[in-house]
Design goal:
single chain; 119 residues; mainly alpha; 0% strand
Length: 119
């Protein structure tokens, strides 16, 4: 079936299509993208990671031997374990604490590496 309006409709829709393509083509931004602004507090963070931690002061504060990592309570804990005065729960807690410390140490080193890469 042929309708008399069909050629007019086709012409109208083709014109609209061409007009839409021209509008879209005109809206393409070809400008070079600007870098994102630096986040607030970046300068403070850079200053914080740029200075080395005073590990000697931390070691003195917590009574840890700076060179070996030994701490004052270590001998007492070893004595309690040797004499059987620690429960299984105590031993599990100590093992968990050692594991958590090792994981935190590794995580801290990873964060330092990341911070250096970002700066």
């Amino acid at each position: 079936m042929f309708t008399p309006e069909l050629p007019e409709l086709l012409s109208y829709y083709e014109g609209q299509k061409a007009r839409g393509e021209a509008i879209v083509a005109g809206k393409v931004d070809t400008a070079q993208a600007r870098p994102d602004p630096l986040p607030a507090g970046l300068a403070a963070a850079q200053a914080l990671i740029a200075k080395a931690e005073d590990t000697k002061a931390l070691a003195d504060q917590y009574r840890v031997d700076h060179n070996t990592g030994a701490y004052a309570e270590e001998a007492e804990i070893a004595h309690l374990a040797a004499t059987g005065r620690l429960t299984e729960e105590d031993l599990t807690t100590l093992a968990d604490a050692h594991r958590d410390f090792e994981q935190a140490d590794v995580f801290g080193e990873a964060m330092k590496s990341l911070a250096v890469c970002l700066v």
